[in-house]
């Protein structure tokens, strides 16, 4: 196990929390600008550096790929240009694909209860797609693809053998964050919707990386626990 896991992790947590809270405060008071955009990229960038230092092998490749795409998405979605939303969406879509590939590499077959959870996630995806069926046709297909990918990612997180459901919890928080973003953008304005969306997103990314370190740093990339 790498020594950074115990010696330097608290410093990364401090930077992550301070930068995330600072960004959320600026967003809550509606203060924009390039400084805010740079600040938004700092939290997940700290996780990216942590993954590069802490992880090895296939897990390292996938985690750094996912987090790098997320940083790009963070920047693109905070810039004041409405026509680049699709590019931010694509960045996060690719990031979720990295997560998905990693999770399914170590996934195990579900038991009876696990199959019910997966069925519930698939039904949820169908309901969300139906709810957003009225959005712009140019955005509907990318949004549907994004929904399918993030639900698939969450199923993979659920199927990774682990001592707890921390990885799956992070995936569910990611879904919650994106649902709030989509509702706020396409259906109706949620009070402080963007603050809630980004707050959940920061928590989700942090939980996923913490869970990944527990699973792949401690086990040397071999999942050994039953579902």
Structural class: mainly alpha
User: Quick one: how many beta strands?
Assistant: 0
Largest sheet: none
- The 3D shape can be described as globular
- Low confidence ranges: 222-227
Oligomer kind? single chain
Q: How many alpha or pi helices?
A: 9
Q: Tell me the span between the first and last alpha carbons.
A: 24 Å
SSE pattern:
HHHHHHHHH
Query: How helix-rich are the residues, as a percent range?
Result: over 70%
Overall pLDDT metric: 89
Would you give an account of this structure?
The chain is mainly alpha-helical and 227 residues long. It has one domain (4-219). The chain has nine helices and no strands. The longest helix is centred in the C-terminal third of the chain and has 27 residues, at 193-219.
């Amino acid at each position: 196990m790498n020594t950074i896991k115990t010696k330097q992790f608290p410093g990364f947590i401090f930077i992550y929390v301070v930068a995330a809270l600072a960004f959320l405060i600026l967003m809550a008071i509606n203060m924009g600008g390039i400084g805010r955009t740079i600040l938004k990229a700092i939290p997940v960038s700290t996780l990216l550096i942590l993954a590069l230092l802490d992880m090895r092998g296939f897990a390292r490749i996938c985690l750094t790929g996912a987090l790098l795409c997320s940083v790009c998405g963070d920047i693109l979605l905070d810039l004041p240009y409405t026509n680049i939303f699709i590019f931010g969406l694509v960045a996060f879509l690719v990031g979720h694909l990295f997560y998905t590939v990693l999770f399914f590499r170590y996934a195990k077959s579900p038991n009876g209860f696990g199959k019910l959870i997966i069925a519930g996630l698939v039904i949820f995806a169908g309901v969300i797609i139906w709810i957003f069926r009225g959005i712009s046709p140019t955005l509907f297909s990318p949004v549907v693809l994004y929904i399918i990918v993030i639900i698939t990612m969450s199923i993979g997180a659920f199927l990774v053998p682990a001592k707890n459901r921390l990885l799956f919890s992070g995936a569910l928080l990611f879904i919650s964050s994106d649902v709030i973003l989509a509702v706020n953008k396409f259906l109706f304005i949620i009070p402080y919707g963007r603050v809630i969306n980004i707050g959940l997103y920061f928590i989700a990314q942090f939980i996923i990386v913490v869970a990944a370190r527990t699973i792949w740093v401690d086990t040397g990339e071999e999942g050994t626990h039953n579902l």
